[in-house]
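Case study B.
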Amino acid sequence: MTFRIGPRTSQIIAHIILLLMTIVTVIVLFFIIGYVFKNGFAQLSLEFLTDRTREMGKEGGILPSIIGTLFITVLAIIIATPLGVGSAVYLVEYTRGGLLRKIISFGADCLAGVPSIIFGLFGFIFFVIQLKLGWSILSGSLTLAVMIIPTIIRTSEEAIKAVPQSYREISYSLGGGKLDTILKVVLPTSLPGILTGVILGIGRAIGETAAVIFTAGSSLNMPTSVFSSTRTLAVHFYILAREGISMPKAYGTATVLIIIILFVNLVAYRLMHRFMAKYY
Amino acid sequence: MPKIVIDQLSLFYGQNQVLKNVNLEVYEKEILGVIGPANAGKSSLLRAINRLYEINYARISGKIRLDGEDIFDIPVNDLRRRVGLIFATPVVLPGTIFKNMSYGLKLYRKIKKQKLNDTVADALQAANLWEEVKDRLYESASTLSGGQQQRLCIARTLAMNPEVIMMDEPCSGLDPISTAKIEATMLELKKIYTFLLVTNNTKQAARTADRTAFFLDGELIEVDKTEKIFTNPADARTDDYIRGRFG
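Model:
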């Protein structure tokens, strides 16, 4: 007699294995966030959020870093989004899927996989030294923009490609031109997908250390313009922990960073749903 | 003078020739049925007339005239407004019923709100859809049934005030009642518009068309009064197709 597993049993086994995999993933995620929150939550206070940083971060708050982080991220997104979406529109709507598109797509994929420290080095040599922008929010944003553009191009490209060709044909057959079709049909329809790419870009930019430490510096002063040097939350956390300045403050900083990321994602998804409700 | 004159029209997708030296005239205020099996070039014919083939990177040779004017001398957006096209599957754009109706109008020129509302209402009435949607103009168009969506597509084209309406198998996905409604709409609108009706349903051509053209493998085999085509066609292949011996 041979041993056989019936189809019913194998279904159950598959179900259990997949469930276990999901549980492991989710547990790891919650463990990390929970661990950071457990150590960092006690640090959160009005003073921590609104005070200047004193004694290299051993005392005081992290307001300059919060402002620097938001400043750099927002500026990077403002620079990267039009460039990325524009490139994606060009690739899908204006090329015939030929060699040019393949080369650019391949290049974007490669760039998306380049370690961020390489971008940091590039930003340092090009923006900080060559263009004489110095260690500044602007240098940091430009570097981050270069880093996240490939992500935005690729996600936008997929979203725009997914717009049914029939929508374009309807627009043309009602007397619409190419630009009308892109602005009024293609982009609104692909917006949720494009926004996903932008959110991924925000996520990469906001938590980045290597690329900004080379380009925005690590000044703890309150930033006053795009030419100020600043220390983002992620960099601040890195320095506090690495140099053993203050582990409690480091966890506090990490907690704030995670909360900001959660908040940004929530707002972005709410905006997306509101838009979808209006258009669909 | 015929409304549309097609002269030695050929259409190519790359090396693939899908229309071969077609000569055809479409008369004012008639329904010209176009029948034939798959790959006969029926849809390509419609896409040649409103130059929609251009977005698929096809090319044509020969001449097409609308009211005696070469279609390449007419700005392409104007041409497509004058010659409307209804597709086989009703495609509503994301957004409300009203937004679908006003899309083409708003592209055309600045239009006052009142005039826009009136045009939309008139077009929906002409397409026999007004009664069903008048209280839900600001609901998503995708909530309509398939038959209603197809009538919305017709209304959307009517709103552009076209001269010719081309339909590419407009009832292929619809139930008999929706089909009957669309055919009734067509017969009513014939007083005002010229129709080109591509259909896989030969009975539909027999019911609605004044004249019928039979296409096979990119060639126009024959065109004549619908009665003649269905009772006593000149070409044996037409007879075979109508009797269902192939295709």
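The interface with chain A takes residues 50, 52, 55, 57, 77-78, 80-81, 84-85, 87, 89, 91, 93-95, 103-104, 107-108, 140, 142, 153, 156-157, 160 of chain B (CB under 8 Å). The remaining cases will be described in the next quarterly update.
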